[in-house]
Amino acid sequence: MNKNDFAPTPPMGWNSYDYYDTMVNEEQVKANADYMSTHLKEYGWEYIVVDIQWYARKAGTMRDQFQYIPFSQLEMDEYSRLLPDPERFPSSAGGSGFKPLADYIHSLGLKFGIHIMRGIPRIAAHQHCSIKNSSVTADMVANPSSICGWNPDMYGVRDTKAGQAYYDSLLELYASWGVDFIKCDDICNTNLYRENQYSARQEIEMLSLAIQRSKRPIVLSLSPGPALIDKAWHYETNANMWRITDDFWDNWDLLKDMFDRCELWQNHVSKGCYPDCDMLPLGRVGKGFDQERQTLFTHEEQKTMMTLWCLFGSPLMLGAEMTQLDDWTLSLLTNRRILSLLTPDCRPWQVRHDASQAVWTGSNEKNGSFYLALFNLSDGTDEITVSLDELTSAPFAVDFVKSYQGEVDLMDLWSGNTSVSKDRKISCRLAAHDCAIFELTHTP
After folding, report:
1. Across the strands, what pairs with 13?
2. Among 322, 21, 11, which Cα is nearest to 181's?
3. Greater confidence, 443 or 133?
4. Per residue in 298-316, pLDDT tens?
5. Residue 135: Cβ-neighbour burial (10 angstroms; 0-12, 13-18, 19+)
6. Mean pLDDT, range 93-116, rounded to an integer
7. pLDDT tens digits, one per residue of 243-296
């Protein structure tokens, strides 16, 4: 199996974290899957991902003190592998794991994913638990000097034959459940270790190998960021997605910063390999954090986020409680013209960027489509003007621009309205933090 075939286009789906934090349950996951199947599946949305601590008993019950209860009770089998908490996921009882829930989601024509922490449970090491297909026990596999700075559940895994056996058994179990997507945390950037932020390199390789050995096409997503640009080739070799930012929330400064991050990674988008801008904090978010709210992003900022994520080629993971989506948010998620950008065939390029504005192009190498996006990053209304000749600085735009000397037709991808350039210039007056994106075609 070629891991680049597991996600031929950037994955699109829902993740429970932004709304539920550690506390999502089976009924809520099913409700969101039902909504996606009915309202979003036809537009390409397909993954339902259960995020962190699905294995932890009483998760979230001490949220006023801890996000992750220190050394809480974890569900685990005899081979040191974590299992779903049966109180929150009742269909997992009796050793069924996530298979019944995955079967339900598959029955809707969707795909099922889970979040995991890098490593092996600390409790498994402390109790000298077994590892399947190995005579070595968990205490000999665990590396107690490799930990996560913000979650107390795991030790890192030593790069040994027994360590690989542990990861192989883990993926054997996940494959038997029907898992299609794994988001592995504390692995993309092990930021507790400032002198070696890529200290989990070997575990990325072990996990990737285990997926190959499982014989199931499981998309591998690495968190948290920021990913290390000098390790790009390693991410691309072993994973399908890797976070280029730390946790992204509904804050304009964080969104504005993404223009720099996307520029840094714009040459690393390819089939099956996607720098990840993180989740879309749209709609209702924050319930599990005791901060339930409608996203703080303005409508203009939401358009900017969706435009940048799609043109850049980032995976799209919605964080909202989907059953409470309003019409505006649903319209953002179902605009076929914008979503059509989301293919590795569309090569992104930032042409211009300063404190007040950004200009991006996208060139689809397969069908010849060419796109131009204008972003007003300032805090007031501004006019942004771009000459067609300026676009030749984008490596994928040269043929399109230079082969014609006349005007170009413009189709606004958000509205569907059409216009024509004037004096070989494209100009838009945009509200604060707003954007416009056009498909350009040559006037006969």
Report:
1. 47, 317
2. 11
3. 133
4. 999 999 999 999 999 999 9
5. exposed
6. 98
7. 999 999 999 999 999 999 999 999 999 999 999 999 999 999 999 999 999 999
* Count of CA atoms in the C-beta half-sphere (13 A) of 444: 0
Task: Judge contact between 416 and 285, C-beta under 8 A.
Answer: no
Contact between 57 and 75 under an 8 Å Cβ cutoff? The reply is yes
Cα–Cα distance, 253 to 6 (Å, whole number) = 33
- List Cβ neighbours of 418 (8 Å cut-off, separation of 6 or more): 409, 410, 411, 412
Q: Which residue has the tokens 């840094």?
A: 264
- pLDDT (0 to 100) of residue 2: 86
Calculated CA dihedral for residues 246, 247, 249, 253, nearest 10 degrees? -10
pTM (predicted TM-score): 0.96
The CA-based angle 240-244-250, given to 5 degrees, is: 115
